[in-house]
Write a structure and sequence with these properties.
heterodimer, A: alpha+beta, nine-stranded mixed beta barrel, 5 helices, about 15% helix, B: alpha+beta, 2 domains, ten-stranded antiparallel β-sheet, globular
Chain lengths: ~300, ~350
């Protein structure tokens, strides 16, 4: 697997991120000024390894899990059953430039994904993964989706060459191997993550992701050629800027970028809890194979 | 095994009291001092493996205590024969089933512990789980329902996906404490950061994030599949208490009662490549007294990485089991009257 340096487009993207952070809200309520939110002079507290201390529980506040791109509020899948429960919030695109650069045929697939997002058919092993949003089926979400799901995650950074990312959603984890040469031995749901420090930024190169994960509930997807480069940059004691460059020549015409802030969870004694969702999806997946008279 | 082992209970008790069980081969009872993290906690970081063929409970054909060289070799051979499926003594169908399981078998699972005990249980000293308490009528009812489901599943006739165990359903696996060796994926990676020790069991991909900063447990009403864990250091030993287990039946070891079950685990690095994992479980509504086991964890070669163990995402077998059962029903098969279940795995 060839790992192309992301530096070329990150340079361009950096400017975009600044603009994105600086742009005033669309609501018309003016902020006092249009200056960047975070001082560029911020120097993060050091961890035992001498690098910025990213230990803690973090969470995104964007609504990109519903749609990476601009989206209006949406009703729940079954409003006749749940009313406003489960409805989706509106949100602004976290994609630099607003649009994901799909190849034309790939855009058709994305739309088909959306149309089939609530359908499931696991009666055949071969077609097992063909229908339905993987989130609905409680699959490990892959990267970057794990980062902007509406659940917290915890970073455990010690002195070993590993940094652990533990996500609340379905108790998914991934181990970031620092300064690691070995390529992904095989594909995995959370991929193969290798990290390095660039100044105060933790850069994580993610390859080897299973092709079946999606980016959001809007059907945005990728192939097994997905290559994600994430950048975690502390910008205050309570915030990080998260950026991810996404490359997949099978699906997109060019690499593209997302960015948003991550917020440190500050509640007293806050801890990562369990969201083990397998029992929530079993009836949907397996119920029709039960003996009808049972129970 | 023909010759019962003749080690004395008194000797075993004395060795236990002296903290003799330093598991690395050749280590004497000399005091080993574990390295410290930069923030001063004993350093347990690394990938550890708990595989062993030494059974949790002492088999009835061996004696109590520690084996001599000859006995140890015989014990290991006998256990490996029972665990290994490559035996060629059961006909073609049995051979194929065993070969399938053999493929997954962790080779470390075929060796007894370096300290040559006859059970992982160290208390009671007879190496056996204490007698069970007669369950209350309410618990008998829920356990009977669970057993009936398990019997339907074992007969190849599950009526419902809930007839399958939590591990088969990929809800929890060997990540529920206590950690016990199994056929495969016996790895545990320990991460540390100031105020936390985090254990990532390979199966299933969860992280047990253990605060060691003295904070209180979650309120009693907030229960979890893996419970709520707090740790503290006693000398170089990490002592871990876990509470707040969910009420689901069949998650805890031997069907223990989540309402009354307690567990304390102790992690002590006793050599550069060895951690002693000791747990004590108590449940007055399941066992007549608490019991304790000691399992050596061995450091894994750094070249051998822990890899993602996914489970639910490709759990095709759930559908196979259920559709197979529906097909058998059409054939007129019922529980107690069907073709024999194939020789299965360990779980």
């Amino acid at each position: 697997m060839q790992l192309r340096s992301p530096i070329a487009y990150v340079g361009m993207a950096g400017i975009g991120a600044l603009l994105w952070l600086a742009s005033p809200p669309l609501s018309g309520q003016q902020r006092p000024s249009a200056t960047p939110q975070f001082a560029s002079t911020f120097r993060a507290q050091r961890a035992a390894d001498g690098h910025p201390d990213l230990n803690g529980i973090w969470q995104a506040m964007v609504t990109a899990n519903w749609d990476l791109q601009d989206h209006e509020a949406q009703p729940p899948p079954h409003p006749e059953l749940t009313g406003a429960y489960g409805a989706g919030p509106a949100g602004q695109s976290i994609v630099e430039g607003g649009e994901i650069p799909y190849k034309p045929e790939a855009l058709k697939k994305k739309k088909a994904n959306f149309d089939n997002r609530l359908r499931v058919d696991v009666s055949s092993d071969k077609a097992w993964h063909d229908l339905g949003d993987p989130e609905m089926k409680c699959y490990m979400p892959g990267v970057p989706r794990a980062t902007y799901m509406p659940f917290p995650f915890q970073i455990v950074q010690g002195t070993s060459p590993y940094v652990l990312f533990a996500y609340e959603f379905t108790s998914a984890t991934r181990i970031v191997r620092m300064d690691w040469k070995q390529e992904a031995p095989t594909d995995a749901w959370m991929g193969w993550s290798r990290g390095r420090w660039e100044g105060d930024t933790l850069v994580v190169d993610v390859t080897g992701q299973r092709e079946e994960t999606w980016f959001d509930r809007a059907g945005d997807y990728h192939s097994d050629k997905l290559h994600v480069v994430e950048r975690y940059t502390p910008v205050s004691p309570f915030h990080m800027t998260y950026e991810a460059t996404i490359e997949d020549p099978n699906v997109f015409t060019r690499p593209w970028k997302i960015s948003f802030p991550l917020y440190r969870r500050m509640e007293k004694n806050v801890q990562l809890l369990e969201f083990k969702c397998v029992p929530f999806t079993e009836e949907l997946l397996f119920g029709k194979f039960n003996k009808q008279a049972a129970r | 095994m023909r010759n019962p082992v003749r080690a004395s209970i008194a000797l075993l008790a004395a060795m236990l009291a002296a903290g003799f069980f330093l598991t690395a081969a050749g280590q004497g009872p000399k005091k080993y001092v574990a390295p410290k993290t930069p923030w001063g906690d004993p350093d347990l970081q690394g990938v550890w493996n708990d595989a062993t063929s030494t059974p949790l409970q002492r088999p009835s054909n061996v004696g109590v205590g520690v084996l001599n060289d000859e006995e140890a070799e015989e014990f290991q051979k006998s256990l490996a024969n029972d665990l290994s499926r490559d035996r060629r003594d059961g006909g073609n169908a049995a051979d194929v089933n065993r070969a399938y399981n053999e493929h997954w078998m962790d080779a470390r699972r075929l060796k007894i512990t370096a300290d040559r005990r006859t059970s992982l249980i160290v208390d009671p000293v007879d190496g056996r789980i204490p007698p069970l308490v007669t369950p209350s009528p309410e618990r008998q009812k829920v356990q009977a329902a669970r057993t009936a489901g398990a019997q339907r599943f074992a007969a190849g006739l599950p009526a419902h996906y809930t007839d399958m165990s939590w591990p088969v359903r990929c809800v929890v696996r060997t990540d529920v404490p206590p950690y016990l060796p199994t056929i495969y994926n016996n790895n545990f990676q320990i991460f540390q950061s100031p105020g936390y020790v985090t254990i990532a069991p390979e199966m299933i991909h969860s992280a047990r994030i253990i605060p060691v900063d003295g904070r209180p447990h979650l309120n009693k009403g907030l229960r979890q599949w893996l419970g709520d864990t707090r740790g503290h250091w006693e000398g170089s030993t990490l002592v871990v208490e876990t509470t707040n287990f969910r009420a689901d039946e069949g998650v805890l070891f031997q069907g223990a009662n989540p309402a009354t079950f307690t567990i304390t685990e102790r992690f002590t690095r006793v050599a550069p490549d060895s951690v002693n994992y000791e747990f004590t479980v108590a449940d007055p509504s399941t066992w007549t007294k608490p019991w304790t086991a000691l399992i050596p964890w061995t450091k894994v070669d750094p070249a051998e990485q822990m890899f993602e163990y996914a489970c639910h995402e490709d759990n095709f077998d759930i559908v196979h089991f259920l559709t197979g059962a529906r097909a058998r029903e059409k054939n007129g098969e019922t529980v107690g009257q069907q073709r024999p279940a194939p020789a299965g795995g360990e779980r």
